[in-house]
Amino acid sequence: MKEKWKQSEDRTAANFGRKTPGSGSGNEKLDILGEGIYEGLRFENKFTEKKSRSISLEELNKARNQALAMNSDWAFVLDFDFIVRGILLSENKFINIMEELDELRKEVEHLRELLSK
Q1: Per-residue confidence (pLDDT) for residue 107, from 0 to 100
Q2: What is the pLDDT, as a whole number, of residue 85?
Q3: In order of start, what are the domains of the chain with their CATH numbers?
Q4: pLDDT exceeds 90 at position 82
Q5: Shortest CA distance to 50 belongs to which of 102, 18, 1, 5?
Q6: Cβ pair 12, 31 in contact under 8 A
Q7: Rounded to an integer, what distance in angstroms lies between the CA atom of residue 5 and that of residue 33?
């Protein structure tokens, strides 16, 4: 049976893209290369069986710098023993996503108005 952290990484890859071969070594950094709608994101998968897990400024800076070097945005997947999974994004990426979502909502509302006439 695979180690739990590998299972977690496989799940992240299945949801967001593909595993980065040899992540952390050579030119390829971070665990998962985003594909499809997640293209342009590099994911760092963090798994723990404990009740808490700290993330240091050093870890965040490392992920950010590695992603920037690959012209990508970064995201952390935090997996607490398959019970709770969360995504940590940079503030700029989150703002961009919310602004794009708002534009889509406005377009949908405009189309609804046109159809109701």
Answers
A1: 96
A2: 87
A3: 4-89 (3.40.1350)
A4: no
A5: 5
A6: yes
A7: 17
SS3 54: coil
Distance between CA atoms of 42 and 67, rounded to whole angstroms? Answer: 6
Between CA 38 and CA 32 the distance in angstroms is: 10
What pLDDT, in 10s, does the model give residues 15-63?
999 998 776 565 567 899 999 999 999 999 999 999 999 999 999 999 9
Which residue carries 């949908």 as its tokens?
108
Look-up of token digits 């404990």:
50
Burial 88-116 (b: 16+ CB within 10 A, else e): eebeeeeeeeeeeeeeeeeeeeeeeeeee
Q: Are 50 and 68 in contact (CB under 8 A)?
A: no
Question: How far apart (Å, rounded) are the C-alpha atoms in residues 105 and 51?
Answer: 38
